[in-house]
């Protein structure tokens, strides 16, 4: 049974995506490899390069996302504890790990942003009012990682790649399509991420709508949506990852059958059909079926 719907803004993001798509298709990530075996190029500093989820039940979560997105799994770096990398047609797209019992982190998808030096980026996060909760630490061929939060408490990751460069395929069903920060107001959040990662900003000029698109190298890489008092109190500021699907209605039906929950039903937008959902442990994400 679907969970009760959230407020009208939760996880939607269609306004911000519309602004981004005026300039470039939001998953036209030119540094990603196509699913043809080509080696992926190194991610541009500041660009989303990985998404990861820490859960209580690793096997059950693998079963859920494997059935929903067609992912297969293989072991990840041992330095991260029980951890697997999700693969789509042999290409890595995401990571899932077991939440340590002494870590009180929310069950949530966490976007990682590329950095040429994770230690310097972590210092920058701290100096600008954010926190670093984990790392920086070495994680085998993954490179050097840190997990932190911005001044409002939204959690994100920093990733200095080594041999494993991160998400290696995009633009197809089962891959990350967009990352969006839901927070109280966009201006201060945008200032934090701009000073840490060197983004350019483009605000949506619209009365009563608070949205900023973050750009890197002229390309939109993420959005910040200020919701004010409409931000769910039980969740606080947080990042939402969108995953592309071939058919949003079928994906939602399948998700519910697998034990997931619908937070906002499938609805039409300028980009196609979207839904805000959660997995059985409560990790929230969005589904996007592109317009053809």
From TrEMBL:
Q: Where are the transmembrane segments?
A: none
Where on the tree of life does the source sit, at the highest rank?
A: Bacteria
Looking up CDD domains in the UniProt record yields: SgaA_N_like
Q: Which residues form the VOC domain?
A: 47-161, 175-290
Pfam families registered for this protein in UniProt: Glyoxalase
The record's section on SUPFAM superfamilies has: Glyoxalase/Bleomycin resistance protein/Dihydroxybiphenyl dioxygenase (SSF54593)
Q: What is this protein called?
A: VOC family protein
What is the organism of origin for this protein? Streptomyces venetus
């Amino acid at each position: 049974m679907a969970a009760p719907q959230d407020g009208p803004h939760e996880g939607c993001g269609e306004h911000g995506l519309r602004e981004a798509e005026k300039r470039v298709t939001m998953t036209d990530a030119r540094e990603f490899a196509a699913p043809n075996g080509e080696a992926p190029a190194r991610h541009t500093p500041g660009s989303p390069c990985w998404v990861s989820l820490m859960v209580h039940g690793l096997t059950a979560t693998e079963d859920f996302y494997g059935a929903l997105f067609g992912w297969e799994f293989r072991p990840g770096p041992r330095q991260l504890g029980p951890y697997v990398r999700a693969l789509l047609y042999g290409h890595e797209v995401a990571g899932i790990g077991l939440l340590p019992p002494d870590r009180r982190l929310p069950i949530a998808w966490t976007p990682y942003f590329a950095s040429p030096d994770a230690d310097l980026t972590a210092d920058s996060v701290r100096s600008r009012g954010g926190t670093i909760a984990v790392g920086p630490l070495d994680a085998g061929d993954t490179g050097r990682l840190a997990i932190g939060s911005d001044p409002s408490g939204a959690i994100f990751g920093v990733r200095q790649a080594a041999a494993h460069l991160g998400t290696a395929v995009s633009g197809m069903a089962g891959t990350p399509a967009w990352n969006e920060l839901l927070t109280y107001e966009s201006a201060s959040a945008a200032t934090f991420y701009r000073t840490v990662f060197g983004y350019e900003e483009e605000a949506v000029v619209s009365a009563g709508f608070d949205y900023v698109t973050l750009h890197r190298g002229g390309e939109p890489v993420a959005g910040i949506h200020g919701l004010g008092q409409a931000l769910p109190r039980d969740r606080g500021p947080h990042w939402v990852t969108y995953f592309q699907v071939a058919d949003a209605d079928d994906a939602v039906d399948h998700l519910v059958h697998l034990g997931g929950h619908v937070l906002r039903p499938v609805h039409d937008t300028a980009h196609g059909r979207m839904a805000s959902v959660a997995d059985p442990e409560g990790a929230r994400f969005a589904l996007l079926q592109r317009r053809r």
